[in-house]
Amino acid sequence: MISQILTAIGAMIFGVAVCAAYFLFSNKLLEIIFPTKEGGDVHRIAVNLRRRGLIRPWLFLGPALILLGVYLMYPVVATLILSFYGPDGNHFVGGANYAWAVNDTEFRQSIFNNILWLAVVPAACTFFGLVIAVMTDRIWWGNIAKAVIFMPMAISFVGASVIWKFIYEYRGGTDTQIGLLNAIVQLFGGTPQVWITIPFWNNFFLMIMLIWIQTGFAMVILSAALRGIPEETIEAAVIDGANGWQIFWKIMVPQVWGTIATVWTTITILVLKVFDIVLTMTNGQWDTMVLANLMFNWAFRGFDSGRSAVIALVIMVAVTPIMIWNIRRANAETKGR
User: Fold this and answer.
1) Region 136-165: what's the mean pLDDT?
2) If we measure between CA atoms, which residue out of 195, 149, 144, 146 comes closest to residue 170?
3) What residue ranges carry the coiled-coil annotation (predicted)?
4) Where does residue 55 rank: exposed (0-12), middle (13-18), buried (19+ CB within 10 A)?
């Protein structure tokens, strides 16, 4: 244990020392290439200072950009190449893996489930987060409510799955139902069900878990945005006779629309990569398979690197338009300022 701590401390000291040395060396190099000694040509000194200012940020960002490019681009290119090879990654099979994906029933089911998750979870999290943010800002115990709602964010997806397994738990025969949902159903005279095995609807039972976790995130971000709305705007709307519903939809929502889009985008990207909940709750059974779990199955259970690479590329292609849209929207807002 002590040796590991010392190794970690040594690595941090070494890293800081290397960064400091690079900083000093790059500055010294700039001074040598673009000198600004006193007594020289004033115009030349001004030009060199301007060049230093243009080059210096790239010198500092350069290593990070190179490492980021390697760690981002290399996996993408390697995965693309791998998608044209067989299970062992050594035999070229052309577009066979893509043909398999188009014709495979489980792959199509995974696509459908991902679309279902995308349609429900981001919209539900954003809506509930916005509503709760508005409601809790108007009550004295709002901060306590926010803390309680935000708490699930501190729980891992696997931990949340264990909690919700007890909620959906089913006991057959005459055994007492210990699952909260089945206990409530039984209390009102209904028939207990194995909820997570009911095709189609079981997807929604899994979605509820992610909504429960991510609503707190949406609430905190949107609450901060709502507090940025000028009080004068709301007071003017009240004076003009607007009711609470009109103030919410016509005053608040338009002014925090950029934040709403950001929250929705963030949760959408998370949903496209959802894995832990499905693996822990159903392992993809009963028509609950999603793309990330299917990729995992082919990579580590079916030992087919080609097919898993195809699925990984599909996930990447699905995420890319959302990222591009979000970047363009952010750039447009920056230009507007």
Assistant:
1) 84
2) 195
3) none
4) middle
CA dihedral 228, 231, 237, 242 (to 10 degrees): 80
Question: What are the angstrom distances between the C-alpha of 84 and each of 250, 299, 305, 309?
Answer: 52, 15, 10, 9
Q: Are 229 and 257 in contact (CB under 8 A)?
A: no
CA separation for the pair 149, 155 (Å, rounded)? 12
Q: Contact, 157 vs 140, CB < 8 A?
A: no
Using CB atoms within 10 Å of the CB of residue 59, give its burial: 0 to 12 exposed, 13 to 18 middle, 19+ buried: middle
3-state secondary structure of 305: helix
Banded pLDDT at 333 (limits 50, 70, 90): low
* Euclidean distance between CA atoms 85 and 304, whole angstroms: 9
Which residue type sits at 144?
I
Residue type, 275: F
Q: Classify burial at 176, counting beta carbons within 10 Å of its beta carbon; exposed 0-12, middle 13-18, buried 19 or more.
A: exposed
Could you read off the pLDDT of 51-101 as tens digits, one per residue?
Answer: 888 888 888 888 888 888 888 888 888 888 888 988 877 888 888 889 998
C-alpha Rg value of the chain to the nearest Å: 27
